[in-house]
Amino acid sequence: MKVVIDQKYFGLFESIGKRIRFSPGEFVFCESDEANEIYLIVKGRVQVYLGTSSGKQTTIEVLKEGRIFGDASFLEHSVRKANIVAITDVELICCRITDLIPILQENSELALLMMRHLTSTCNYLTNTINRLVNYDSIQKVADFLLTETNPNEPVIPYTHSDLAGCLNLNRVTVSRIMEKFKAERTVEYGRGTIRVLKRQKLEELLK
């Protein structure tokens, strides 16, 4: 389960950081940049992706309000391991780890939430590797939809192209799979969103 930072904590981050804005297509940071700051998403969505020398992109995740990124800044002399680009108009709170530590020391509840957030990020990446290595195309799509949604939030703001990028699959292949799921009333989609209707049907594909 993904962990988000509740809005009640946004003021604490802003008290030691600054608000910055990005337009669609603008980079927050790129691979190999120095990792000095951590970011909290106040509004909008960003894409996390890896690039190759040939220009190919593999999307790792799409993050939205309440998510934190830039965790590498917890390590001294670290560099960014991925690219972060704005998908929509984005508003972030940017702060340095050295300024955040005293806040965490004074607020045990927020410190625990941050630890849970970091753990959930590690679990997410482990699950992503397992999906890419061990699943066929249909299972990859099914697992991704299950991971990105839950019974209380069955809708995600993804297009077929977004899915293809996240799963390193051909867009035509993803569209064919999604059409099959839609015909079976397992999902429905339109206008850049996907809704999971039958989680059990997707779960059965992974057994």
UniProtKB/TrEMBL annotation:
<dbReference type="InterPro" id="IPR014710">
    <property type="entry name" value="RmlC-like_jellyroll"/>
</dbReference>
<dbReference type="InterPro" id="IPR036390">
    <property type="entry name" value="WH_DNA-bd_sf"/>
</dbReference>
<dbReference type="InterPro" id="IPR000595">
    <property type="entry name" value="cNMP-bd_dom"/>
</dbReference>
<keyword id="KW-0238">DNA-binding</keyword>
<dbReference type="GO" id="GO:0003700">
    <property type="term" value="F:DNA-binding transcription factor activity"/>
</dbReference>
<dbReference type="Pfam" id="PF13545">
    <property type="entry name" value="HTH_Crp_2"/>
</dbReference>
<dbReference type="InterPro" id="IPR012318">
    <property type="entry name" value="HTH_CRP"/>
</dbReference>
<feature type="domain" description="HTH crp-type">
    <location>
        <begin position="135"/>
        <end position="200"/>
    </location>
</feature>
<feature type="domain" description="Cyclic nucleotide-binding">
    <location>
        <begin position="22"/>
        <end position="121"/>
    </location>
</feature>
<keyword id="KW-0804">Transcription</keyword>
<dbReference type="Pfam" id="PF00027">
    <property type="entry name" value="cNMP_binding"/>
</dbReference>
<keyword id="KW-0805">Transcription regulation</keyword>
<dbReference type="GO" id="GO:0003677">
    <property type="term" value="F:DNA binding"/>
</dbReference>
<dbReference type="GO" id="GO:0005829">
    <property type="term" value="C:cytosol"/>
</dbReference>
<dbReference type="InterPro" id="IPR018490">
    <property type="entry name" value="cNMP-bd_dom_sf"/>
</dbReference>
<dbReference type="InterPro" id="IPR050397">
    <property type="entry name" value="Env_Response_Regulators"/>
</dbReference>
<protein>
    <submittedName>
        <fullName>Crp/Fnr family transcriptional regulator</fullName>
    </submittedName>
</protein>
